[in-house]
Target: Alpha/beta hydrolase
Amino acid sequence: MENTTNFKNVNGRDIFYVDFGRGTPVVLLHSTGGSGRDFIFQTSALVNAGFRVIIPDIAGHGATKLTSDEITLKDLVKDVWGLLDALEISDANFVGLSMGGMITLKAAVNRTQRVKKAVLINSSWNTDTEAFKKFLPAWKEKLTSGPGTTKWFNEGWKMLVNDAFSSSALGVQTFQIFLGNAAMSDGRSVATVLDSVSGVDLTGDLSEIRSPILMISGGDDPASEAMKALEHQLPRAKHFVIPGGRHMVNVDSAEKVNERLIHFLQH
Model:
């Protein structure tokens, strides 16, 4: 598999990314507290299907350091466009998991002509809700209680993937990889980015999106209900629920997600 691993200086940040394969570009945007490794089960499947796969670590995550004490959703979107400009890519397909889905939606509003197709996985368009505000302080406390974001990750793993996957050999290996990433993460940076996507409501902007959209949710993840509500607000959206999948349905139900994902991007 041909690949490029590099940093690009974008908006004063050295953004870490991996770039695999050739063909129509697909940008994969990970979740809060995660990294580009969230998509370890999608990369080769997309490359083998003929796509060029670009996976950045979002600011404050993975190998991309946060360079200020404040950042906004708009800044996160600008980083994506800056990376694509640096790679001389005019348009691409976008796949966003959780927070990455919100960035994807904002990107499709911001420059809808550059977003060929969009895939949202267990995401939302509105965090300006009482439920989100209620849990935000506890999430931030776990992120910043160290070392790294291990407390956040350990307590959340059972909600991220289903029991069948977590107890499998592959699940144990994946846990080890993700836990290592959490141990090396800067919890305060992640909490800062979490603030950037809190209190955001894109409802008034959704009508501007012209890109075809696929929504995938895990049947056992609370985001599934939000995705059902979002489907009615996006005129070109299709929604599929993977029974038994949890928040990282792309991990615990990777084959089913990849099948839907690749079919949507190819047709």
